[in-house]
Structure formats: C-alpha cells, structure tokens
Amino acid sequence: MRPEVALPVLLPLLSGAISLLFWRSRPMQRFVAVAGNVALLIVSLWLFVSTLSDGYVTMQMGSWPAPFGITLIADLLSAVMVLMTAIIGLAMGIYSLATTGRGHEKFGYYPLMHLLLAGVTGAFLTGDIFNLYVWFEVMLVASFALLILGGERAQMEGAIKYVTLNLLASVIFLTAVGLLYGMVGTLNMADIALRMDEAEHTGMVEVLAVMFMVAFGIKAAAFPLFFWLPASYHTPPVAVSALFAGLLTKVGVYAMFRVFTLMFDQTMGYLQDIMLWGAVFTMVTGVLGAAAQYEFRRILSFHIVSQIGYMILGLALYTPLAIAGGVFAIVHNMVVKTNLFLISGITHRLQGTYQLKKMGGLYRERPWLAIAFFISAFSLAGIPPLSGFFAKFVIVRAGLEVEAYVATGIALAVGLLTLYSMVKIWNEVFWKSLPEDNLVPETATPTGDDGRLLKPSLWMMYLPVIVLAFTSLLIGVFAEPIMWVMTGIGDQLLEPRGYIEAVLGASASAEDVLLESSAAAEEESTADAEGETP
Amino acid sequence: MEPLMAVAIGLLYATAIFMMLRRSIVKLVIGLMLLSNAANLLIFTTAGMTRGAPPLIPEGMMQPPSGVADPLPQAVVLTAIVIAFGVLAFAVVLIRRAYEVVKADDLDKMKDTDT
Fold first, then answer.
1. Which of A17, A124, A381, A453 is in the most buried spot, having the most CB atoms within 10 Å?
2. Which of A185, A52, A14 is nearest to B48 (CA)?
C-alpha cells in the first residue's frame, strides 16, 4: 500500500469536487485553487522522494492482482512529470486568481482546472493502457470546456479544430488499444510488454506501433499533425493558454516515451527513422511558423511545436543519454513555456494587446518583467547557463554519439531561429518605445477577461513569473544533480525489466501467477481429499 | 459472424472519415459519432465473438471453464461508449454555439484563427 502513488490523482479530483460544492462561493473556490495545488505539490514531492529511493512505486487498485486490475505505477519519469505538473499547477492557481474574469470563475474555471490536473497526473501514473485512454479523455474534456469559456468567436473556431483533431486522435488510440487487446489479451502495460516479446512477429505489431505513434503524435502536436495547436492556443484566456502550453502536449510526448520504450521497443529499429525525421520537421516547421507571426501568443504556440521536436528527437535517437536529454527537454520546456505565456498575459494586462507591433517600452517601465522574459526566452533558445542549454546540449551530444549528424545539425540551427523569434519579441515588446497610436491609458487599468475592472493585483501575476524564471535558472545551475535523475530515467526506460517486475512481481508472468495459484488450489484440494499424502 | 462485422466496421470507419472531410460542421460531428461507434464495435469484435457462454465461474472453481465470453472488452466498450457520449454531447453544444457566433455551417468560414 503506497498512498503517494494514488494521492497526486485523488487530490486534484478532491479539490475539483470541493470547488464544485462551493459553486457559488467565489472566495472558497479561489482558496481551494491555491490550497489544493499546494497539497498536490507536497504529495508530488513525496512521490518523487519515494521513487528516488525505491525506483518504482506501485499500487494495485482495489487490490486486484496485477494483470487483472488497474495498476498505478510511478517510475522516475512519472514522478518527475507529476512533480512538474504540480509546480505548473500551483503557479497557475496563483496566476488565475489575478487574471480570471468573474464570468469565467462563475462558470466553473477552478473545478475544470483541478479536473485537468487530475487527468494529467492520472495519465502519468497509470500502468494500464485503457486507463491511459480514460485519463486522456478526462484531461481532454476539461480542456475543451476551459478552451471555450467566454465563448468568443475566435475561441469557437479554435475549439472546433482542437476538438475534432483531438477526438480523432482519441479514436485512433482507442482503435489501437482494441486491436492490441485482440492480439495479446491484456491491457496492463507491463503484461503487454512481456507478451509482445513472446508474440509472433506479424505485421500487426508494426501497424499498432504506427497507430500509437499517430495518435500520440496528434496529441503531442508533432509534424505533420500539429495544426490544431497554433489555431487554438492563442484564443482562450491567458491562464488557460499557459496551462495548456505547459501540460497538454507533454502528456502526448510522455505517452510516446512510455509506449515506445516499454511495449514497442522491438519496433523501434523500424520506426526510428520515421520518428527522427518527424522530429526534425517538427522542429523546423514550428520555428519557421513562429518567425512569420506577430502575435505574442501565436509565436509562443508555434514554439511549443518546435520544442516538441526536441523531445521526440530524444526518443528517436533511442540511447539512454538521448532519452535523458528528451526528458530534460520536457522538464525545461514545461517551466519555460508556461512562464512565457504568463509573461504575455502580464504584457497584455499592461498594454491591452497581444500584437507585437502595438506594444513597446516595457524595458523602461518594468525592468524586472523584462529580466524574467529575458531569462525564459534565452532559456528557450538554449543559451548557457540556463535550463534550455543543458537539455539541448545532452540531446546534441547523444545525436553526435550515434552519428545522426543531419538531425543534430538541424537541431542546432533551430536553436538559432528560436533565438531570432525571441529577440523579435524582445525588440518589439521591451526595447522599442511604445508606438504613438497605441491607445493604452496612462494608468493601464487592469481588467479581467470579461472587461470588468479588477483590483490591481499585479503581484499575483508577478509571483509565479518570478518563481518560474528562478526555477529555470536553478535547473541550469543545478544541472548536474538533475542530469543524474535524467540518466536514471533513461536507464529505467531502456531497461523495462524493472518496470515489469515492479508491476507483476518478480515471477514476472501473469500466466505463471495464474497457474501457480490454481496449482496451489488444486494441491490444497487434493491434500484435503487424500489426507497427508505429500 | 466476424467477416460480416469486419465489413460493417470498415464501412463505418469509411463513412465517418468521409463525413469528417465535409465542410459542414454538422456533418463533421456526425462523422465523429460514427467514428467512435466504429471503434467500439472493433474492440468488441477483436476480442472474439462468443455466444451463449456468460463468463460465470461455477462454484468451487478458481477459473471459468474455457470457451466463455471475455468480459473485459465489454467493460472497455461500455466505458468507451460513456466517454464518447459525454464528449459528443459537448461537441453538439459546441457546434451550436459556433453556428450562433459564426452564422455559417461551413468550416471554410472559420479561418480567422489560422492566419
């Protein structure tokens, strides 16, 4: 019984339920939004410490033995992802207090935020492939509702694309799960991994692997399946954008890491090239898309796509070092990307627009904000000593080790183009003076997203931004211990034996467990019948 | 029975994709509905179709006798149906709102956020 595996899922569900109970009480919902996420952060730290000492922490739901019931399992990768989710969740909880308009709060913003977090942590912690689908749907439904809160035209248009493509991905995922069950007769991921090794190699394994790759590729916004992302992420209120940017695509990437290292490791030789070039094109198209944009959040949205490429590149190179780099990139990106969206929210509050052309002069007015942006943006571009540098460094080094020179070269060039976009934002928003036709009032009255006046609560927006910028700095400064954890993740992922044994027990085969128990039962019955015959 | 189901499922998938490629958002949602139903039928079929053998374990035995229906895919399909129902209810409301806002049942008129 290890409660710390279940708690990161249960706590957000509980917070969501509590805030639903207090549907009409705005202060209570706001309190729960912060308190619940603080609690989530604490249990995530607990889980992280446990996995650091034990390697794997498992819990069988309802005490059903492993391949039959649903298993919750945390290895280092899951624990790190849950920890990052909790950090982002807390930052968003605080930030939302200041930015969420009354109208949004009235229609269930906070309960939806908690449910989204529950879906994300559930997807990270489950050890059952169908359960993974269910958590994906929990996350999606919450994100659908968050995306259209407010109901503006752009949100509707973005939501239709987002909903359609994500549902399509879900159905592909579900189809693949169904076919997989038909083939191996189990849904437990560890058990599937075992039976895939034993199963006859027909073409079906490759077909399934590609179906999973497409399904998670859509969810992770990989080339050529990313079009829903830049069409929708800039439409909702900024807190929602930031939450999505930090968490949603990463769940898709996580699922890829999990599925392809655990279950389809034997197809990797065949898929590696497709994945590698997919990753390269993801990086390039994302960063080029961003270069053409002049809307703050759209630039950032395209950069999400571009960064997804690095993560998938880490997986595609498929060495322990590359996987460590890929996970490092996920961790770094969750912090930095969320922070950039948060900063775009502050600049929107200050200047009333997301159009770069209409903004300006913030370096003089808000030097600390400019520094926070500077840290995050240069970290995204991979300038040492910030967090992005080490993520990129590890991936590039892993790429050179396996002699994937073209992909590595492109990864480096994309870093330069990222820098170009970030410098563009820096120049337009912070450096140049405010254009005269901008109608920003002198006192920059803060308003909620529904246009109602709010109390000037800028510090609640600054606090998460500064904390996240510091986190990015710290990841850069303490890169060595973090890299030590990441190497542990790489080793764990490429050596799935430990995962399988943690789920199924040391005997490591469901068949054996079943046979043993029935044999034991038979022995008992014969012993009963025949007295003391040995 | 299986070949018949395979044909039916294939037709459902094909129809669903065809409907999703239309410009009308109503047809898009109809396509999504068909698609999730096709996936459910597929799970049901791949797990093997067994008639008249409910998965009940006779008293005193540890395992059901061989040849019974597999209960797991049915549970899976049930879950998937519920999820699809909820999501599609959302999608229907969404297209209604979108129609109210955009005043057109045409995806080509919804390109504001793409540029």
1. A124
2. A185
Domains of chain B, earliest start first:
2-50+72-107 (1.10.287)
pTM score of the predicted model: 0.90
Instruction: Check if the beta carbon of residue A439 is closer than 8 Å to that of residue A352.
Output: yes
Distance CA B43, CA B48 (A): 9
Phi–psi pair at A71, nearest 5 degrees: -100, 135
Residues B47, B50, B52: CA angle, nearest 5 degrees: 150
Amino acid symbol at A179: L
In chain A, residues with a C-beta closer than 8 Å to the C-beta of B5 are: none
* Spatial contact of A165 and A173, defined as CB atoms under 8 Å apart: no
Interface of A with B (CB under 8 A): 130, 133-134, 137, 140-141, 144-145, 148, 151-154, 156-161, 163-164, 167-168, 170-171, 174-175, 177-179, 181-183, 185, 187, 231-232, 234-235, 514, 517-518, 521
Q: Which of A134, A141, A231 sits opposite B114 (nearest CB)?
A: A231
* Distinct helix (H) and strand (E) counts, chain A: 22, 2
DSSP secondary structure, A207-257, as one string: HHHHHHHHHHHHHHT-TTS-THHHHHTTSS-HHHHHHHHHHHHHHHHHHHH
Given a contact cutoff of 8 angstroms between Cβ atoms, the answer to whether A306 and A283 are in contact is yes
- One-letter amino acid for residue A87 of the chain: I
C-alpha–C-alpha distance, residues B115 and B107, integer Å: 15
pLDDT values of chain A reduced to their tens digit, one per residue, 534 residues: 688 889 999 999 999 999 999 988 888 888 999 999 999 999 999 999 999 998 899 888 888 887 888 899 999 999 999 999 999 999 999 998 888 777 788 888 999 999 999 999 999 999 999 999 999 999 999 999 999 888 788 888 889 999 999 999 999 999 999 999 988 888 999 999 888 877 776 788 888 999 999 999 999 998 888 989 988 898 888 889 999 998 999 999 999 999 999 988 877 778 888 999 999 999 999 999 998 888 899 999 999 999 999 999 999 999 999 999 999 999 999 999 999 999 998 888 888 788 888 888 888 888 889 999 999 999 998 888 888 899 999 999 999 999 889 999 999 999 999 999 999 999 988 888 887 766 655 444 445 444 444 555 677 888 999 999 999 999 989 989 999 999 999 999 988 888 988 888 765 544 444 444 554 454 444 444 444 443
Give CA angle at A497 (A495, A503), nearest 5°. 130
